[in-house]
Amino acid sequence: MPNPGRFTRRLSLKTALAGAAALPLAATAPAAAAPPERDAGPLEVMSFNLRFASTTEPNSWAVRRPVTRALLRHERPHVIGTQEGLYQQVRDIEADLGASYDWIGTGRAGGSRDEFMAVYYDTRRLAPLEYDHFWLSDTPDVIGSNTWGGGSIRMVTWVRFRDLRDNGREFYFLDTHLDNASQNARARAAALIAQRIGGLDASLPLVVTGDFNVAAHGNPVYDTMLGAGLLDSWDAAAERSTLYATFHGYRPLTPGGDRIDWILVTPGVTVHRAEINTYARNGQFPSDHLPVQASLTLG
Predict the structure, then answer these.
(1) Is 129 helix (H, G, I), strand (E, B) or coil?
(2) What's the topology of domain 4-297?
């Protein structure tokens, strides 16, 4: 019997290559026994544009990886929606997070090719029940499709999770990265995501993470996402960190700048704290984006 975590990842790549519909994981791997129920505590969520691995100095992946490792090991989110990771980079982060974490994802050009919207999760807290991928185009079930003039292939990875520490509560988690070059592509992508959200079980909470490449409150993309019935966790939070622009490009941080990386939630989710994480070590940031985080109670 293959290791269930390994099987999940291989099947994720296989599913994308085959263009299959949403896959119930319980049908392919034995369900882990739920630990004794206890006070769950908030669900800790992170959205993190990793900046794709490159050898270009001074911010090569070899330089950034130890800083990324230190950040993630310190924060230990229960679920992380990532963007831009290349396959080996995704595997590096898997190794650095440790044995209690697993991940789901596929390259946006299919299989291990191109960037991933990889979703990492703490297996001590969360169990995936089903997942799927779709592409932000007129043909969302066609792997690698890009029909709106975007500068790159763009996609979504979504997972339905069970919270093992919160009485088995289920919720959806959706991770994406919108185009950096075309407002038309971004606008149409947001409309497609809103449509797909409308097809999910409305009785379950939903958390959306992503790099949307536009400022919150400053673009129709934001209006479309909120029009889909979502709330901005930053605005909804009872407590917030200092606001910085979430893209810094390895330059000095911009206080009060644009938030282009968001965590969105459905009404009924309580946001205890929202944070823009400015962790750096000896002046080295882990990415050209700042991770954004939210501490949530789902219901």
Answers:
(1) strand
(2) Deoxyribonuclease I; Chain A (3.60.10)
